[in-house]
Amino acid sequence: MIDVSEDYKLHVTVTPTQKFDQYHLKIESQWLGAKNPDARQVAYSVTLPRHQMRAIAVAVLEGLT
Predict the structure, then answer these.
(1) φ, ψ at 13 (rounded to 5°)
(2) How many H helices and E strands in the chain?
(3) How many angstroms separate the CA atoms of 46 and 24, rounded?
(4) Residue 8, exposed/middle/buried by CB under 10 A (0-12, 13-18, 19+)?
(5) Please, where are the H alpha helices in the chain?
(6) How far is CA 65 from the centre of its chain?
(7) From first to last of its 65 residues, what are the pLDDT tens digits of the chain?
(8) In sequence order, which residues have a C-beta less than 8 Å from that of residue 46 and are 6 or more positions away?
(9) Which of 44, 46, 48, 55 has the most neighbouring CB atoms within 10 Å?
């Protein structure tokens, strides 16, 4: 979980799928000021092979330098 602010959070999960060498990335947002503060909204969701998932990780790391 990433605390973006006091009342806004991001939940990031990467899980393997049943298909060989495929992984599912899901990013969900959670606003604690919402009517249902426990609810999460899917902001991004994708299933990719390992090499493409690594490419995303590399792009994020390169963007941080």
Answers:
(1) -130, 140
(2) 1, 4
(3) 6
(4) middle
(5) 50-63
(6) 21
(7) 899 999 999 999 999 999 999 999 999 999 999 999 999 999 999 999 999 999 999 999 999 98
(8) 24, 25
(9) 48
